[in-house]
Design goal:
Layout: E1 2-7, E2 10-15, H1 23-36, E3 59-65, E4 70-76, H2 78-84, H3 93-96, H4 99-115, E5 119-127, E6 131-142, E7 151-161
Length: about 160
């Protein structure tokens, strides 16, 4: 399944087939699969940051609140914060993203909640006074009780590109 959203400075696509381009995302997916074993998904307690040292700068850990749904950054890797020029750790998505982008982000998380499996998002982003990037994210659901998705572990990788035109 592919779904796309375009805004003036961002393009977002959803890829349920997990056609990751960055090999690091396949490693992260393999790790998640190993940790879940025979379960639908692992719990946060199963994830050991020491085992993910190579990926730490590109990891995001997101707290999920339900009724109403709210997303909060629990952890954002230093490679991500350095590129974005800000550290949003501890902030809710609705405190930092514009409504159009927030709606797109929530659609991808709603897909994860409904399907209870990983989702790759990808696209292009332009950061004023910085650069134009393609990016891909692999979002991996976590559940402490095996029922409710209460966290998402994400790997986010940016690749510099030449702006179109």
């Amino acid at each position: 399944m592919m779904m796309n959203l375009r805004t003036p400075d961002l393009w977002v696509g959803m890829d349920a087939e997990l056609r990751c381009e960055d090999p690091a995302l396949f490693q992260l997916l393999d790790y998640w699969n190993d940790k879940r074993g025979g379960r639908e998904m692992p719990a946060r307690a199963d994830i050991d940051p020491q085992e993910l040292r190579r990926h730490l700068g590109n990891l995001i850990l997101i707290d999920i609140e339900h009724e109403p749904t709210r997303l909060r950054y629990r952890l954002i890797g230093t490679r991500i914060t350095g590129l974005m020029g800000r550290d949003s750790t501890g902030k809710y998505y609705d405190e930092i993203y514009e409504p159009e982008l927030l709606a797109s982000i929530y659609r991808s998380f709603e897909w994860i909640f409904a399907n209870r499996r990983p989702l790759r998002t990808h696209g292009e982003a332009f950061y004023p006074d910085r650069n134009f990037y393609s990016y891909e994210t692999l979002n991996l659901p976590l559940s402490s009780d095996g029922v409710v998705i209460d966290m998402v572990l994400g790997g986010l990788y940016f690749h510099p590109r030449t702006p179109p035109g």
